[in-house]
Amino acid sequence: KIFKKISKKNFFLPSFELLFCLYSRQDPAYDLAQRLCAKYPKVDTRIFIGGQRVGLNPKINNMFPGYVASKYSHLLISDQGIYMRQNALTDMVLCMLERTDIALVTQTPFCKDRNGIWAALEQIVNNICKKILQFVKNKIIFFLFYVYFGGAHSRIYLASHAFRFVCSTGMSALMLKDVLEQCGGFRQFGGFLAEDYFLGQAFARAGYRNVISHMPALQNSANTSLFTFQERICRWIKLRIAMLPHTIILEPVQECIFASFVGALSFGYLFGQQAMFPFLAFHFIYWATCDFILIKTLQNGQLPFSISQFLFCWILRELMAFPIFVKAVLNPHIGWRFGTYQLCWGGRIKPMKES
After folding, report:
1. 157-166 long-range contacts, Cβ below 8 Å, gap at least 24?
2. Could you give the CA distance from residue 330 to residue 204 in angstroms, rounded to a whole number?
3. Name one GO molecular function term (predicted).
């Protein structure tokens, strides 16, 4: 519909291509990609199966044939499970055009709203007690994702970019292909698991900036469980510690509970023990309020949960933070995609088990 409107106004249509990079034909996305290609034959699309091994990073290996075959100056990497709003790509391009030294535009990781009414009806009809409990559990996990990515993760992500620190997330990223090739291309980052961070570092060393788009990356993954949530956060902590060892000290300090108790002990030392509880109460309320405001700002509309649901998931997330951190520190191995890898200092990986 958009292209029809543009054609009627005699505007030039943008030049673009869609490159689908899949591991195998058994991937559920393969049939969908084929149907889309058949439905829109005039759109320049290609499907790449199997990837090409250029390093240990499975994502780099999977994308490499598409990267080599790409023919335009701008590359948009969009992971599976990312929902793009209608004008999200336009916004990313406009962000890149603001300055001549911008070569990388990323989106703040967030979550897409989910309408659970049909799932609820199906579950109620199927098996009332068991399925209602499962539905409530799934809702809590979804809200937990929402609270984490809209609060703790966005807080650090936005603050890092405000201070011009490199903090790039590759789940939705627009970049200049010629700058990427100046930095060695995707092959250069095949030895790192956090290729997005090192790609941002390479761009910065080459004299280019990376900025954040005004619209967040809406994660829409079907597999949302408490285990996958914990493993994902644990993996990111391991990567940060391996890349920047000093974060082993900074990581727990940035969390609300640890900072609250340190602040309360300081207040107790300065003003007496009677000042500790009021400080704790004020600090928790203030921190939760700031996180709620940040989530509301990122959502830019009606939130899919109530304030009481937010508080429950916020407290649960804060209580989980330190145990996940300890788990990440004690086990440096990472299981991701089709292999298990050992992290080395500096962010490089060694294979332990690959399939």
Report:
1. 157/108, 157/109, 157/212, 158/108, 158/212, 161/210, 161/211, 161/212, 164/209, 166/197, 166/200, 166/201, 166/204, 166/210
2. 32
3. ceramide glucosyltransferase activity
Kindly state the DSSP code that residue 221 receives in the 8-state scheme. Answer: -
Task: Give the pTM.
Answer: 0.81
Q: Which residues form the catalytic set?
A: 196
Q: Are 121 and 269 in contact (CB under 8 A)?
A: no
Alpha-carbon span 225 to 228, nearest angstrom: 5
Query: Which letter does DSSP use for residue 152 in this model?
Result: I
- DSSP letter for each residue of 99-119: -TTEEEEE--EEE-----HHH
- And the tokens for 198? 């090192």
Is 303 exposed, middle or buried (CB count within 10 Å of its CB: 0-12, 13-18, 19+)?
A: middle
Per-residue model confidence (pLDDT) at position 132: 41
Residue-level pLDDT at 207: 93
**In this model, does residue 178 exceed pLDDT 70?**
yes
Query: What does the chain come to in residues?
Result: 355
Rounded CA-CA distance 121/18 in Å is 37
Instruction: Give the integer Cα–Cα distance in Å for 140 and 251.
Output: 25
207: left (phi over 0), alpha (psi -120 to 50) or beta: left
* β-sheet bridge partners, residue 131: none
Compute the distance between CA of residue 235 and CA of residue 225 in angstroms, rounded to an integer: 15
What is the token pair recorded at 232? 């994902």
Inter-CA distances, 313 with 23, 259, 306, Å: 35, 19, 11
Nearest alpha carbon to residue 211 among 301, 290, 100:
100
Question: What's the gap between Cα 220 and its chain centre?
Answer: 11
